[in-house]
Amino acid sequence: MMGPIVLKKSLASNASTRRLVIASPFLILLIWLILQNLAYVRAGLFNPNFTVIFSCYEFNLIHLPQLFFLLGIVYAMLLLYLKRHRIYLSILSIGLVSLAISLIGFRHYITEIEPKKLVVKQVAQYSKKITHPLRIVHFSDIQSAGVGSYEAKIFKTIQGLEPDLVLYTGDFLQLPRTVDFNTEWEKLLTLFKTLKPRFGIFAVYGDTELQLYSKPRSEINPIQLLSSRSESFTFEGGDLSLYGLSLYNSKNPLWAMRGIESWILNESKDSFKIIIGHAPDYAMALKDSPVDLCLAGHTHGGQVRLPFIGPLVIDSDVPKSWASGYNKIGLPYLNVSAGAGSNRYNGLPALRFNCPTELTVIDILPDEI
């Protein structure tokens, strides 16, 4: 009882002072919120440092709603002792509890709803090199923390798209340390085996599958991993050549060009040429190269995209306008997948805002002009 009585006596001054005293816990919390987030920025939030990102997520979307809710309850209890200030206290209490509920709802949306939306984007590319349509499905960065119903949804969706060719640009699994890679890889590979594209499934290595480098081809089929090597085939619409980059070369344009230039010289000028690499950085060196289509992932589209600002973090040196989607970058076109999954580094939950997971259908069509 002494606490509220003392507080009553301290509020005997003018109205403005009384309101300031009442609001001081909230103001202190607000100042702490600003300072803590500035500290996250200085510690590498946008570099990106994923440990810092995880801490920022926990503070703003787990601990902060709890603090807002508790402070709202405290203000509600003070209504019993400070009846002269009931309107002001009611506003603070309802506002804080509403803010806590909103943050909890926002956390649910960005971790449970948007990461599982899985939109299908469709683009058409016309070429004089092709006389018959070819349907490609490009996807990337499943980065599953445990293969389950969502991953099954990805592959069921791809089956319905009936692709001629499936191209995957790396990052298959990103598992917690307690989860066995081989077990989850078998589950994911079983899903890949449900796909039956006419011309196969081709992929490159990403950042998260070190264990795949040591696996024999029999434990990777039907996926054909291209790392600094190419594959070509002829179909009723023409000739097509694929070149897959190593992880290192996809992030280093000058090194990538050594292999790419040699590949171009050895291929017919009339073949439709596609390069696949995990990171899109390699495409910065291809402006004047006779390549038809470049594919990449890695950026996840930023995962968090603010209106009028765009992605906050893309972990790449490409322009932010290239961080996701289909763009003409000179002679070639570049499609960067925003990812079928989300970054799960060190237990980070799937986080997406204004950047849903996606698959891309690219229809290569004859240019009749």
Features:
369 residues, alpha/beta, Purple Acid Phosphatase, chain A, domain 2, 6-stranded mixed sheet, 8 helices
* Helical percentage: 25-40%
Let me know the average pLDDT.
Answer: 93
> How is the largest sheet built, in terms of strand order?
1-14-2-3-4-5
CATH architecture of the largest domain: 4-Layer Sandwich
Q: How large is the radius of gyration?
A: 26 Å
Q: What can be said about the biggest beta sheet?
A: 6 strands, mixed
N-to-C CA distance: 87 Å
> How many domains in all?
2
Name the CATH class of the largest domain. Answer: Alpha Beta
CATH topology descriptor of the largest domain = Purple Acid Phosphatase, chain A, domain 2
User: CATH superfamily of the largest domain, please?
Assistant: Metallo-dependent phosphatases
Approximate strand percentage: 15-25%
Number of strands: 14
Helices and strands, in order, run as HHHHEEHEHEEEEHHEEEEEEE
Q: Tally the helices: what do you get?
A: 8
User: Which shape, going by the Cα principal axes?
Assistant: elongated
Low-confidence segments, given as residue ranges, are none
SS class: alpha/beta
